Amino acid sequence: MSENMKLTLKVWRQKDAKSQGKLETYQLDKISEHMSFLEMLDVLNEQLINTGEEPVAFDHDCREGICGMCSLYINGEAHGPDRGVTTCQLHMRMFKDGDTIYIEPFRSKAFPVIKDLVVDRGSFDRIQHAGGFVSVNTSGNTIDANTIPIPKEDADNAFDAATCIGCGACVATCKNSSAMLFVSAKVAQFSLLPQGKIEAKDRVLNMVHQMDLEGFGNCTNTGACEVECPKGISLENIAIMNKEYFKASTKA
Amino acid sequence: MCPQSENNILFMKSSIGRKILMALSGFFLMFFLAQHFTINFLSVLSEESFNSVSHFMGTNPLIQYALQPVLLFAVIFHLSMGIYLEIKNKAARGAVKYAMNKPGTNAPWVSRNMVYTGIAILLFLGLHFYDFWIPELVTKYVEGDMTGMHAGSFRYYEELVAKFQDPVRVGIYCLAFIFLALHLLHGFQSSFQSVGFNSNRYTPGLKKFGNFFAIVIPLGFIFIALFHYVSHLN
Q1: Do the beta carbons of residue A203 and residue B1 sit within 8 Å?
Q2: Are residues A127 and A237 in the same domain?
Q3: B15–A212: do the CB atoms touch at under 8 Å?
Q4: Which of A177, B86, B133, B200 could disulfide-pair with B129, CB 3.0 to 4.6 Å?
């Protein structure tokens, strides 16, 4: 057990969206292996504030792995070396005393850097607005859940797709900067359920159109997104989206 | 809602439409490869049947005037769209690269280097066309000799064997087939994913078959080249 790790951090510092950034090197010690990665960054920021330097800006919110706010490309991998976790759930025990850790923002043309490690993921919001919803009124007139029977497998798959937190790790890690895992999760989540089927055609056409407009790249099925996804969103969703898109494009 | 014609244009211009077209042309090319291999393998088994099948393929109007242009189009489309998408994808990554990136931790090499294995295959195709396809076109459509005969017998087997007497050429062919295998290792299973086929039940088996196809077909081509080289060594 180590309560006293010494680390060298190489952190991307960038004043604002327009400035050029660069990697800065910081030394940290007395890092406990029980800390989360974000707590380690909090320690770094305390140290920076105490020495009169500008703290490092990074995104974070719930710190329990469900909000999708934290990001970071850590030592060459989205959300770091652990699997199935967001950066806030990555723990310092994944690193060794004396390690050098590269900390960079999620990179993509469609995710411009705002400051330091904070990127603008508004492109994801715009894709959601283009069709990632159902227009069925689901509040105030709730009916019994079993009124519309749904095959168990469909319900499970829809639920799995719905666990996507929209963090953008798929885009950050994809060699093509493709957003297809994210978009497919949103498309599949609804297309599998009766409430979503009504708008299925327009949804997939509009969301894919918006995705292309935002400047994301094209999927080449490397599968890197699925490996790095903190929620284990399956590539199967991309196949579902491809099929949905094909159907929507060929049917009148 | 979009009118249908507009939808079709959007489809061609969309990321998913292009990826489906890449897969469909890929399917066609893999089918072509399988039949090309089958016919070439006949040359190992029987000179006579290789000659007669080659003559049929080379002179049948349906194959020559319908399938051959489709094949040519598929090759050109698959290559140019592949390169075009690669350029677009590089641009989508943005201007600043990761200082530290470990792509090998989450995606196999073959899936990340399709454009390079593809370009290697393109270069090979140049040699291959120069060796076989262009002389064939010249004989048949420029000189107008549709008989398939040379000095009283079918020329196809002799032409094939003659090309595989040069060790350098045999070496280049073998190397090209290694690139083909690498390309297919990703391409086969990827095509199914692109057209929307991914099922817990069939995909694992399909991937296994894809790996089998990707190794056996190129290895078979290598075997054919080496067979003709070795069996005609003095």
Answers
A1: no
A2: yes
A3: yes
A4: B133
Q: pLDDT digits over A179-222, tens only? A: 999 999 999 999 999 989 999 999 999 999 999 999 999 999 99
- Domain count within chain A: 2
Query: Closest Cα to residue A89, out of A110, A65, A107, A62?
Result: A65
- Please identify, in words, the CATH class of the domain defined by B13-231: mainly alpha
- Are A57 and A38 within 8 A, CB to CB? no
Each residue's pLDDT tens digit, A119-166: 999 999 999 999 999 998 777 877 787 888 999 999 999 999 999 999
Residue where one domain finishes, among candidates A112, A147, A171: A112
Domain coordinates in residue numbering, chain B: 13-231
**ipTM of the complex, rounded to two decimals:** 0.93
Q: Please report, for the domain that includes residue A182, its CATH number.
A: 1.10.1060.10
Strands (E), chain B: 149-150, 153-154
Amino acid at B205: G
Count interface pairs A-B at CB distance under 8 A. Answer: 163
Which among A79, A112, A145 is the end of a domain?
A112
- B93 chain-A contacts, CB cut-off 8 A: 107-109, 175-177, 217
